[in-house]
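Name: DMT family transporter
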Amino acid sequence: MTRIQANMLLLLTAAIWGAGFVAQNQAMETMGPLWFVGTRFLVAFFVALPLAIFEDRRVQEPFRGREALTFFAIGLALLAGATTQQFGLLTTTVTNSSFLTGLYVIIVPLMSVIFLRKMPHWIIWPAAILAVSGIYFLSGGQLSSLTTGDLLTVVCAFFWGLQVLLVGIFAPGSRRPMALSAIQFLVCGLGGLLMAIVFEPVSLDGVIQALPEILYAGVFSSGVAFILQVIGQRWTTAPQAAIFLSSESLFGALFGAILLGERIGLMGYVGCGMIFVAMIIVEVVPELRKNSKNGVSTTG
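Structure predicted for DMT family transporter:
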């Protein structure tokens, strides 16, 4: 798979996640955040399980315990990110949540420098700033006073960044991307359900009413999209992946307009354009430089 194809998979992932914001917001009307996190990721586990079993039969090497532990750690990062985001939606708006979650675009390159001592391509920095600025304009440029939900979503952005970074580290060297997906979903699903049993009441009627949202979030937002993320990140860098995944805010606005009748103003369209430009330059500039070093003409 080429880097361009991998980044297109990540763009599709972002589109699915963008529609998932609508499902997450509507599900909270009838069930608690922990029950929603647990059920959606348990559904995602059963989506990924057949693929993981098929993969295991094709891979000749035994499944090492150290590899399983790294997959477990990725699952914990996913659980922390999903839980804090879902709790944040209780006391913040979808607009604020999408903006603050998008901060992982900046967090991933910073983590790469701090923990990996690895400087990303220079274009990542202006592209990340441009993408975050675009998300801000997409939000209308007016964030209300920070609430507990806003602060939780900032914490959520840190954990999303950690999850993206860990997948970027371990997925390229692993021959078991489906096992990675299945294990992180199982850790997140069981973790969410265990906490829900302790801390939240449950209503069967509420779960039934939210079933369409649970199935969409479980099958598509969690199952399909996170599998595409793992596959895509095997062939691209974590900072570039963060840029493409950040476009979920753009898609969130689009699906909000289509499904909920929401509309964005001129500033929102400016933000969409800025995010699109960020994705284009992070894709094109490294390719142009590589072609230039190889002595390949880039003028046609």
